[in-house]
Amino acid sequence: MLHRVVVTGIGALTPVGHNAPTFWQNVVNGESGAATITKFDPTLFRTQFACEIKGFDASQYLNRADLKRTDPFTQYALVASDEAIRDSGFDLNQIDPFEVGVIWGTGQGGMDVFEEQVTEYAQGNGQPRFSPFFIPRLIPNMASGMISIRNGYMGINYTTISACATSNTAIMDAFNYIRLGKAKIIITGGSEAPITPASFGGFSALKAMSTHNQNPASASRPFDVDRDGFVMGEGAGALVLEEYNHAVKRGARIYGEITGAAMTADAYHMTATHPEGIGAAKAMQLALEESALTIADVDYLNTHATSTQVGDLSEIKAVTSLTGGEKTKLQISATKSITGHLMGAAGAAEAIICLLSMRDSVIPPTINTTKLDPAIPDNLTIVTKEARPASVDVAMSNTFGFGGHNSIVVFQKV
Known about the structure:
The chain has an eleven-stranded mixed beta sheet, with helices on both faces. Strands 2-3 form a two-stranded antiparallel sheet. It has helices spanning 20-29, 64-68, 72-88, 111-123, 134-138, 142-151, 166-179, 197-205, 244-249, 278-290, 309-323, 336-339, 346-360; strands at 5-13, 35-36, 49-50, 100-105, 157-160, 185-192, 235-243, 256-265, 300-302, 331-333, 362-363, 381-382, 388-389, 394-401, 405-412. Helix 3 packs across helix 6, helix 7 crosses helix 13 (346-360) and helix 10 crosses helix 11. It has two domains: 5-249, Thiolase/Chalcone synthase (Peroxisomal Thiolase, Chain A, domain 1), CATH 3.40.47; 264-403, Thiolase/Chalcone synthase (Peroxisomal Thiolase, Chain A, domain 1), CATH 3.40.47. The chain is an alpha/beta fold.
């Protein structure tokens, strides 16, 4: 027997809010998180701005010992997961700790500490002076490990990595473990701290990022005819997934149910999506079939759309292949226009957007998009400029990643 899986807690640390309520309000209001980079001098790069987390002081959330032994990507994970766990309100004393797990995602892991330590070594006298915390801070699985250690969760614990599809992959794995009866509760999501000289410089060298340096807030413009690349972001999103009957028995608030999830591979290119969106379309189809739905049943689609020329249109082609060119009630938005691209954390942040869209009956906007690409067919409704009131019973979240990874999650109201 397969168990139903619901979301009972959410937490967020993003460029537009240090907690889930603030994050959601600024997404609905269309408040851009993009600005000139402050973490380092970006003037040597083609792109000089990003969506940084502003005014964040990790010492307000974590003790000195945890600060010393963690990279920012783990710190972000701890802050967001703490909020989601509080929000869920489950009592570990009333559940076997081996039935509570953590499946977390990150695309890069401890890039900040890697650069710091290797740079210090290179600039030194050649003597190995690495910190004993270098490896623990660096390795990508440390966020899931630290969430477990911090809270005493002794069940399933590991990290997924599938580039920018990462946290949707983590959510899908958590969903599957719970519905197979291998856990009652799993904390899942993703975190990323990629705004470092090497990471940022690498993406800049790929010419994948927007160069609207004079007006960063308007740079991310998915589906616009003048889009010129993505805007890098950082942060974390966390969800508490729980077996439905367990959640009902303890009187938990339920944000929504996960009814389907799927992954495919493009098998096409290291960094580019398949131009016809074949893999993305198949992943959406499989996730919907698992939910016993079709695209005609979906009210809201939060697209991966990062504001790149090829990527945005390949996703549109994937959606169009499912609609068959027919007009449906489906409404689409690309909230990376607001948050920037949180990379390994993107799916988790956008899952929260889907859930709160269902709760509040509102579809957040795609900002900065003033002239839709004429290649976008008329049968698709893109929500631009302002949020739109709408009844949302089914929401779907798309994420894609370098390496050809496609990961889709479907949410429904309970």
